[in-house]
Write a structure and sequence with these properties.
This protein is mainly alpha-helical. The chain contains four helices and no strands. It is elongated, with a radius of gyration of 17 Å.
Length: 140
């Protein structure tokens, strides 16, 4: 029975969680739900890059080692994951209170949504790091 490394297990677990973050972000913010609106372009980048990342990454994980295009698919998937992580951090910035003369006041943040957003989007950065380490160390 072949042994599976801890890094490989983390990569597979993070793959499922990262896909869930992409889908949940789209569901919650795509319908205008949530405490603040996120621009459609940023949400679109997050969603499209996330969908492409999931498809490419799962393809990379399922390909046999001897497939020549596997490395290219893995690198493209990693690039997409990093775009998703960056877009997620920008989405997370919506929680930062606005300042200045023209700032709108009265925004009540729901603490549960803040923690969910923090866990999801900071977790996406962690997932991108885990994916990169898994790729670089050939654990997957």
């Amino acid at each position: 029975m072949p042994s599976v490394s801890v890094t490989a297990i983390l990569v597979y677990l993070c793959t499922v969680l990262a896909a869930a973050v992409v889908v949940l972000t789209r569901m919650l913010l795509g319908r205008g739900r949530g405490d603040h609106r996120v621009g459609p372009a940023l949400l679109g980048v997050h969603t499209v890059a996330g969908a492409v990342a999931v498809l490419l990454w799962v393809t990379f994980l399922l390909l046999p080692d001897d497939v020549g295009a596997g490395d290219l698919i893995g690198v493209l998937a990693l690039g997409c994951w990093w775009v998703v992580a960056a877009a997620g951090l920008l989405i997370l910035m919506r929680w930062k209170p606005a300042r200045g003369r023209r700032a709108r006041g009265g925004h009540e943040h729901r603490v549960g949504n803040l923690w969910l957003s923090l866990a999801g989007h900071l977790g996406m950065v962690v997932a991108a790091v885990v994916f990169t380490l898994g790729y670089v160390t050939s654990a997957v």
